[in-house]
C-alpha cells in the first residue's frame, strides 16, 4: 500500500533549484529499493518564490505501465505559501520506481534527489535526478548517448531508464559500447509504454557482462523520448545519475582563438553516423533553427552516404523543406532521389502541377560510399549537387530553382532524410543505407 508523501517543512532551497517549468513535468522516482546492503530513495523539493500562494499536484505512474490508463489513480494536491517550499518523501510504494507527474502553476520550482542509505538508514550518497520537460526530450530517431557507465563484480551497477511521454508506445534500440569502441553484444530492441518509464536494472548483467568500466549506452526511439542511467553502489551507498551528453557544437571559443562566425549563419552538424534507416524507423527530421521571419540566401549541405541495396524504383535520400499542416501547404525546396537500377539522379523542385525537376544520368553503385554536397542558392536561383569520392567530383547535377523564399514562417525548416514509408508507389526509404558527418549551413541575406 502506498504511503502518502510526507511533508517535512519549508526549506530555503538555494542553488539546487532548477528554472521554473510551465504546465507539467515528469521526475523519475525510486522508493526504498534495495541493492545489496544499500537502499535508495527519491526526495522531491517544490518551491514558490512568488508573492502569492500557488498550487500543484503530483501523480505517481509505476514503471512499465501504460500511463494513459488512470483508473483508480488520484493526484495529490498541495498548496505553497508565498515564498515557501515543501519537501516530499514516500513518493511511491516501497520497492518500486516510476515517474512522478507534477502539474502546477508555471512559477513553481522543483528539483529532486536520489539518496543512497546505509544499513543505519543514514544518507551516504546523493545525486540530483532530471526533470523531464518538452525542452529536453530527445527528438525521434535521434540518439541519447550515456557515457561513463560501470559495472563491477561487487558493484557498482548501472540501471538504464527510457522515458516515453507520447500517447502511444514507442520502439527503441539500445546499443552498448566499451571504452575502446567495441560493441557489447548486438543492438537490443525494446518497447516502452505511453507516458511511462521502462527500467532495465543492472543493464550490463542483462547483456552477460559482469565487469565493465567507462562504457556507453546509446538509445534511439521512433518517438520523442528521454533516457538516463543510474550508477549505484551495492556494498556501500554511491549514486551517480547520467543524462544524455552534449556535443561540442558551441559558439564559444578559448581566449586567443577566433570564435565561430556570429553573422547569423545557421550551422547544424551531426558528427559520425547519425542515421541508418530501418523498417519502422526509416526517416529522420533534422531541424534547421532559422530565425523566424528572417530571409536566407543560401543553404550548403554536406554529408557522407554509403549506399545499400537499391529499392525497386527511387530511393528518397533527403528533402529540404518548410513543413506545413498538409502536403499541399508545405514548401519543398528540393527532394533528392536516386534510381539506382537505371543510373538516374532525380531532384524534385517542389512545384505542384508543373513538377519541374533536375534530372541527370550517373551509375550509382550499391554498397559504396559517396560524399554529397548540395548548394541551394536563392540569389543565383540555382542549385547544384555533387557526388565526391576520394576528393574527386564524380557526378554533378544542377539547374534552376523555383522556391525562393528561404525562411521560417512559423512551421520551421528541416532536412528530412528518408521517408516513413513508400510514397506514390515509387519513392522508397533507403533502408540499410548509412548517413554520416552532416554539416548544413544556411546564410542570411
Q: Work out the count of structural domains.
A: 3
Q: Could you tell me the strand content as a percent range?
A: over 45%
Class based on secondary structure composition and strand pairing:
mainly beta
What does the largest sheet look like? 7 strands, mixed
Gyration radius from CA atoms, angstroms: 25 Å
Note poorly predicted spans: 6-22
CA-based shape:
globular
Tally of strands? 31
Alpha plus pi helix count: 1
Quickly give the CATH architecture of the largest domain.
Answer: Sandwich
Average predicted confidence as pLDDT: 89
In CATH terms, the superfamily of the largest domain is: Exo-inulinase, domain 1
At CATH level 3, the topology of the largest domain is Jelly Rolls
Portion of residues in helices? under 10%
Distance between the termini: 64 Å
CATH class of the largest domain: Mainly Beta
Write up what this structure looks like.
With 445 residues, the protein is mainly β. It folds into three domains: 6-129, Hypothetical Protein Tm1070, Chain: A; 143-242, Hypothetical Protein Tm1070, Chain: A (Sandwich), CATH 2.60.290; 266-444, Jelly Rolls (Sandwich), CATH 2.60.120. The protein has one helix and 31 strands. It has one helix at residues 203-206, and strands spanning 6-7, 23-31, 33-35, 38-47, 54-62, 76-80, 85-89, 96-104, 109-117, 123-129, 143-151, 157-164, 170-177, 188-192, 196-200, 212-221, 226-232, 239-242, 266-275, 283-287, 296-306, 314-322, 331-339, 344-348, 357-361, 369-377, 382-389, 392-400, 414-418, 427-428, 434-444. The strands form six sheets. Strands 20, 22, 23, 24, 25, 29 and 30 form a seven-stranded mixed β-sheet that branches. β9 and β10 (123-129) form a beta hairpin. The longest helix has 4 residues, at 203-206. Mean pLDDT is 89; it is low at 6-22.
Amino acid at each position: 500500500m502506498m504511503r502518502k508523501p510526507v511533508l517535512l517543512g519549508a526549506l530555503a532551497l538555494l542553488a539546487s533549484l532548477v528554472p521554473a517549468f510551465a504546465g507539467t513535468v515528469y521526475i523519475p522516482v525510486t522508493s526504498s529499493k534495495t541493492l545489496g546492503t544499500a537502499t535508495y530513495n527519491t526526495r522531491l523539493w517544490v518551491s514558490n518564490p512568488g508573492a502569492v500562494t500557488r498550487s500543484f499536484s503530483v501523480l505517481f505512474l509505476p514503471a512499465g505501465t501504460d500511463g494513459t490508463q488512470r483508473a483508480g489513480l488520484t493526484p495529490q494536491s498541495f498548496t505553497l505559501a508565498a515564498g515557501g517550499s515543501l519537501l516530499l518523501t514516500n513518493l511511491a510504494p516501497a520497492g518500486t520506481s516510476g515517474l512522478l507527474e507534477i502539474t502546477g502553476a508555471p512559477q513553481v520550482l522543483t528539483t529532486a534527489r536520489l539518496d543512497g542509505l546505509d544499513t543505519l538508514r543514514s544518507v551516504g550518497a546523493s545525486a540530483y535526478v532530471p526533470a523531464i520537460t518538452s525542452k529536453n526530450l530527445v527528438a525521434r530517431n535521434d540518439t541519447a548517448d550515456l557515457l561513463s557507465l560501470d559495472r563491477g563484480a561487487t558493484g557498482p551497477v548501472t540501471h538504464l531508464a527510457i522515458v516515453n511521454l507520447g500517447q502511444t508506445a514507442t520502439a527503441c534500440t539500445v546499443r552498448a559500447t566499451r571504452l575502446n569502441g567495441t560493441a557489447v553484444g548486438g543492438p537490443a530492441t525494446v518497447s516502452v509504454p505511453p507516458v511511462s518509464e521502462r527500467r532495465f536494472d543492472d543493464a550490463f548483467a542483462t547483456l552477460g557482462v559482469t565487469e565493465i568500466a567507462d562504457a556507453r549506452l546509446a538509445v534511439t526511439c521512433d518517438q520523442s523520448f528521454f533516457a538516463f542511467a543510474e550508477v549505484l553502489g551495492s556494498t556501500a551507498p554511491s549514486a551517480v545519475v547520467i543524462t544524455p551528453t552534449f556535443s561540442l557544437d558551441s559558439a564559444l571559443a578559448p581566449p586567443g582563438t577566433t570564435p565561430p562566425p556570429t553573422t547569423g549563419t545557421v550551422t547544424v552538424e551531426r558528427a559520425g553516423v547519425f542515421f541508418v534507416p530501418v523498417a519502422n524507423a526509416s526517416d529522420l527530421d533534422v531541424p534547421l533553427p532559422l530565425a523566424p521571419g528572417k530571409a536566407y540566401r543560401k543553404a550548403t549541405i554536406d554529408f557522407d552516404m554509403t549506399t545499400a541495396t537499391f529499392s525497386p524504383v527511387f530511393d528518397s535520400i533527403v528533402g529540404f523543406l518548410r513543413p506545413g499542416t498538409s502536403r499541399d501547404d508545405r514548401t519543398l525546396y528540393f527532394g533528392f532521389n536516386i534510381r539506382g537500377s537505371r543510373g538516374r539522379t532525380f531532384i524534385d523542385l517542389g512545384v505542384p502541377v508543373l513538377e519541374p525537376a533536375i534530372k541527370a544520368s550517373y551509375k550509382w553503385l550499391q554498397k559504396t560510399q559517396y560524399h554529397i554536397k548540395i548548394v541551394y542558392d536563392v540569389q543565383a536561383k540555382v542549385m547544384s549537387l555533387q557526388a565526391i569520392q576520394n576528393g574527386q567530383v564524380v557526378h554533378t547535377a544542377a539547374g534552376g530553382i523555383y522556391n525562393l523564399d528561404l525562411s521560417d514562417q512559423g512551421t520551421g525548416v528541416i532536412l528530412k532524410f528518408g521517408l516513413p514509408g513508400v510514397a506514390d508507389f515509387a519513392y522508397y526509404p533507403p533502408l540499410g543505407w548509412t548517413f554520416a558527418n552532416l554539416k548544413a549551413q544556411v546564410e542570411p541575406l
